[in-house]
């Protein structure tokens, strides 16, 4: 498995749509990423000071 560099824009888009209250499938569709990627970003978001509550 290789290393994929992601842009800050991609991460911010995923997290902003998620923080609007949408589920992983909707977030993935709007951000143009896989649902597994959405889940990975969500799991790491509390470490970055972001979270739904």
Task: Walk me through what this model shows.
- It is built from 3 helices and no strands.
- It has helices at residues 8-19, 24-31, 35-44.
- Helix 1 (8-19) packs antiparallel against helix 2 (24-31) and helix 2 (24-31) packs across helix 3.
- With 53 residues, the chain is mostly helical.
- It has a domain at 11-46.
Q: Let me know the average pLDDT.
A: 83
The main pleated sheet reads as: none
The radius of gyration is 11 Å
Low-confidence stretches: none
Beta content: under 5%
**Strand elements, count:** 0
* Helix percent band: 55-70%
**Mass-distribution shape:** globular
Order of helices and strands: HHH
What descriptors fit this protein?
mainly alpha; globular
Q: What is the element layout, followed by pairings?
A:
Blueprint lengths: L7 H12 L4 H8 L3 H10 L9
Helix pairs in contact: 1-2, 2-3
Concise summary:
The chain is mainly α and 53 residues long.
